[in-house]
Structures are given as structure tokens and as C-alpha cells.
Design goal:
The protein is mostly helical. It has a single domain, classed as Growth Hormone, Chain: A. It is 74% helix and 0% strand. The chain is globular and about 65 Å long. The protein starts with 9 loop residues before the first helix and ends in a 16-residue tail after the last helix. GO terms for molecular function: transmembrane transporter activity. Pfam families: MFS_1 (PF07690). Keywords: Membrane, Transmembrane, Transmembrane helix, Transport. It comes from Lithohypha guttulata.
């Protein structure tokens, strides 16, 4: 049975349809067409978009920052005494705890993305953030390793709605060739979390013995409290979807400014209007093969990025011989380098309106770094390889999100694609949690081979997509084909 979402504010859509003849005269998505607006000069438009950036990207990025920190602090706690106290070094106990999170994380993403649209991103995203903070505090108290499993399963349910919800929300606010820089800044803030997580964990370890709790327990307890605080603040700072943001976000945008955002989106891809939800139509988006190609690219990327996130401190400690403190702190520089590569490639991608070549270039960087990690005899060279691999996988994540967002249309298709993309990312998390096995130390070569295969598969999929996209775009130019239900729409290569 189809359910119906609340209809958008009619006064906003009245504003959107003003000067319709102007929009038709400027039907292309060139920069000149997008910059023209009957109510605002280009300078005024930049100020409005900058306010969106500051409110939307900053808030989502900070919350994602704490999400990544909470998701990946397992490895920091592991070398801080958790593995010894809970006997996680026996068999596959640590890997089991790492991967069970992704079972519920994957299964709950499609319904969670629909709920994000239905409930609204402010109460939904802030609420689940606050709730997983409470779960994170609970990680500080188990006395048996089996108690960690239900906590990780619950954490997976709560976080299932966050990342795809943010990806979907951001995509509704920007035109196609503004997206990768925004996704990069959003994800870059998360990378800063990954970079600082080890240093923060090392600091929290120094609380060892306070109130009788070991240092690894304080990592979970204190980071859980921080998550609850940020989740509560997120309710007041997050914004709604653009068609109703003027009603729900105080001191943000007024009705006229929201109408400008919607006009701009309609000029670019004509999907600002929200259709009534229909389950059959929503599921039928799965018949589009390119959606699964995007998802498979994301699977390959997250396999590598999660493997690095979960095991880098352990690799630095057991594989390269660094001390516990050094292993915690040496996590930071590779993620800082990844941030530079990420934003630099995003700037190039948006400026020149390309996506596939960026994905291939970053994958090649990973193919250079992985053999260095696995085969170099010097710890310094192996650590340099970590820089390349970390930058490759993390810089390609916003590139893949923009690649997907640029080549689809429609609000519910966008929601479906966000769920499938991040869902496959969760499956990549499962494989990533098994890639670097303790018995493969110190070289971890089976994991190196798996990561090389992932980068090669990314290159193959992008090449296949490029061949298809070029052929489809030529048919559009000849008037033989309509893509994504919009005359004149062309794929971004």
C-alpha cells in the first residue's frame, strides 16, 4: 500500500514557478544558467549557499565525525587492554565483534532512509545520534566478551540511518556540480575524527584506574557522553529538506531563499518536488543496473577504508613494531594527508565536471601504496604506503557519492540509491573487518591482495560505466534517447 508524505509548502512552490519562461529559456545546466535568478544576483546567491554550507555541511560533518569515532574506537580500546581483559585474542572473537555491527547496519538502511524523509532529518538524525551515544557508554561496562555483541548489533541499527540520511539530505540541497566539494568537506570532518581518534583515545587511556575502571573502558564512556551532548545540540542545528526548511530551522533561510534553492535544483535536474511514497515504485529502482555498479564501487572502497580504520593501530603495533602510544598517535598523519588529497581531487572534479577519472586516479594511488605496505622491508617505507592507501580509499568515498548523485534523478530514487550505496558500504565493512587477520602479521599479505583486487575492480566498473555513459549521451545529443525521465539530461562521466 502506498503511503503519502506531507505535501510541500505551496507558497514555496509558487515562488519556484515564478519566471517560468526564464527557466525555459535557460534550460541547460551551464554555470550561466544556474547563476541567473530573477530575485538574487550571483553575489547574493553565493551568500545564501554559503549559509547552507555553514549550517548543513558543518553540522552533518561534526555528527558524522563522532559517528566514525564511535564506530572505529574498537581498535584503540583493543590495544589499550580490552583484548586482554575480555580475552578477545582467542580465535576470531575480536573480528566477530567488529563485523556483527554491519549485519544490522546493512539490513536497516533502506527503511531508515525512508524514515528520515518521513520524520524529518532534525528529529531523526539527532535522535539516533543521542541514542547511540547511550549505547556507546554501555560499552564501558561488559565483563564478558559476549556482552559486546548485542551492543554492537544495537549500534548498527541506530547508525544505519545516519550516513545514508546525511548523503540523501545533502544531495537535495545542491546542484550536481557543487556536490563533490560538499561531500568532501562533510567526509573530511569525519577523517579529522579518524585522525584525532587515536590521540583522544590515548589521552582517555590515562584515566586508567579512576573509579576502578581500566583505561579502555573510559574510552567508550567519555566518547559516549560526548556523542549524547552533540546529538542533543544537533536537534537545534540540523536543517530540514529544502522544501520545508524555512518552517523548521530558525535563523537559517526564509521562504524566498528556500524557493531560490528549489529553483536552482529544478534548473539543474528538475527533481526538487517530492512525490508521494509508493513502495512498488521505490523498489523498482533496483532494476537500474548502474545503481548496483555505484554500490559495488562503494563496497570496494569501504572494504579498504574500514580495514584501515579497524586495524591500522594493530598493524602499526604488531606489524611495524611501534609502541602502543606511537601506534595510537601515528594514525593521525595518514588521515591528514587523505584530507588534502580528498579536497584537492574534489575541487578538480567539480571544476572540470568529471567523476570517473578521479575515481580511477585515486584507485591507482592505492595500487601504488598497497605493495609498499606488504612488501617493503623498511618500516618507514611501509608507513609511507599507509599514507597512499588511506588517501586512496578515503578520497574516493565522496567521489563515489558524487558520481552516484550526479547520474540519477528523483527524490525517492535518490533515497533508494543512498540506502543501497551505503548498504553495500556496510557489507564492505564486514569484509573489511576480516581482511587483516592476526595470523598474517607482520606483512598481512592476504589483506594486501584483497585490497589490490578491490582497487582493480573499481577501475573496471568505472571504465564500463564510462563506455555506456558516453554512448547514452551521444544518443541524447542526437535526440534518440531520454535519460532519467528528463529531456536533455546527460550522464556525468
Amino acid at each position: 500500500m502506498a503511503t503519502h508524505s506531507s505535501s510541500p509548502d505551496t507558497s514555496v512552490y509558487d515562488k519556484v514557478t515564478e519566471a517560468k519562461h526564464v527557466d525555459e529559456a535557460l534550460s541547460d545546466n551551464s554555470k550561466e544558467a544556474l547563476d541567473y535568478d530573477p530575485e538574487y544576483t550571483p553575489a547574493e546567491q553565493k551568500k545564501i549557499i554559503h549559509r547552507v554550507d555553514m549550517r548543513l555541511i558543518s553540522t552533518c560533518g561534526i555528527l558524522y565525525c563522532i559517528s566514525l569515532m564511535d564506530r572505529t574506537n574498537l581498535s584503540a580500546a583493543a590495544i589499550a587492554g580490552m583484548n586482554v581483559e575480555l580475552r578477545l585474542n582467542v580465535g576470531f572473537r575480536y573480528s566477530t565483534i567488529a563485523l556483527v555491527f554491519f549485519i544490522t547496519y546493512v539490513l536497516f538502511q533502506p527503511p531508515m532512509t525512508v524514515l528520515c524523509r518521513k520524520i524529518g532529518p532534525r528529529p531523526f538524525l539527532a535522535g539516533i545520534c543521542f541514542a547511540w551515544g547511550g549505547v556507546m557508554i554501555g560499552f564501558g561496562f561488559p565483563t564478558q566478551w559476549t556482552s559486546m555483541i548485542p551492543l554492537r548489533l544495537i549500534l548498527g541499527v541506530l547508525e544505519a540511518g545516519f550516513f545514508p540520511g546525511c548523503v540523501y539530505l545533502i544531495s537535495t540541497w545542491y546542484v550536481r556540480y557543487d556536490l563533490q566539494k560538499r561531500y568532501s568537506v562533510f567526509y573530511l570532518i569525519g577523517c579529522l575524527a579518524s585522525a584525532c581518534a587515536g590521540i583522544l583515545a590515548f589521552g582517555l587511556m590515562q584515566m586508567d584506574g579512576i573509579n576502578g575502571y581500566r583505561g579502555w573502558r573510559w574510552i567508550f564512556i567519555m566518547e559516549g557522553i560526548l556523542t549524547c551532548v552533540l546529538g542533543a545540540g544537533g536537534y537545534f542545528l540540523l536543517v530540514d529538506f529544502p522544501d520545508r526548511a524555512h518552517r523548521t530551522a530558525l535563523w537559517f533561510l526564509n521562504e524566498k531563499e528556500c524557493a531560490f534553492i528549489l529553483r536552482r535544483i529544478n534548473k539543474d535536474r528538475d527533481d526538487a518536488a517530492v512525490e508521494s511514497f509508493n513502495f512498488k515504485k521505490w523498489v523498482s529502482n533496483g532494476l537500474d543496473l548502474k545503481i548496483w555498479g555505484f554500490a559495488m564501487i562503494f563496497f570496494c572502497l569501504t572494504t579498504v577504508s574500514y580495514a584501515i580504520a579497524y586495524f591500522l593501530p594493530i598493524i602499526l603495533r604488531n606489524g611495524m613494531g611501534f609502541s602502543v602510544g606511537a601506534s595510537q598517535c601515528l594514525v593521525a598523519p595518514p588521515y591528514a594527508f587523505a584530507g588534502i588529497v580528498m579536497f584537492g581531487t574534489a575541487w578538480l572534479a567539480d571544476k572540470y565536471r568529471v567523476r570517473g577519472p578521479i575515481l580511477i586516479g585515486n584507485a591507482v594511488l592505492g595500487l601504488i601504496g598497497l605493495p609498499m605496505m606488504g612488501y617493503a622491508s623498511s618500516s618507514g617505507v611501509r608507513y609511507l604506503g599507509v599514507f597512499f592507501v588511506t588517501a586512496s580509499a578515503n578520497a574516493n568515498i565522496p567521489a563515489c557519492m558524487a558520481y552516484q548523485a550526479n547520474n540519477i534523478r528523483g527524490q525517492w530514487k535518490r533515497a533508494f540509491c543512498s540506502a543501497t550505496l551505503v548498504g553495500f558500504g556496510g557489507i564492505g565493512g564486514i569484509s573489511g573487518s576480516l581482511v587483516f587477520r592476526s595470523q598474517d602479521a607482520p606483512t598481512y599479505r592476504p589483506g594486501i591482495f584483497a585490497a589490490i583486487a578491490c582497487n582493480l575492480l573499481i577501475i573496471v566498473i568505472v571504465i564500463c560505466n564510462t563506455i555506456y555513459f558516453r554512448a547514452a549521451n551521444k544518443k541524447v545529443d542526437r535526440g534518440e534517447k531520454v535519460l532519467e525521465g528528463l529531456p536533455g539530461f546527460k550522464y556525468t562521466i
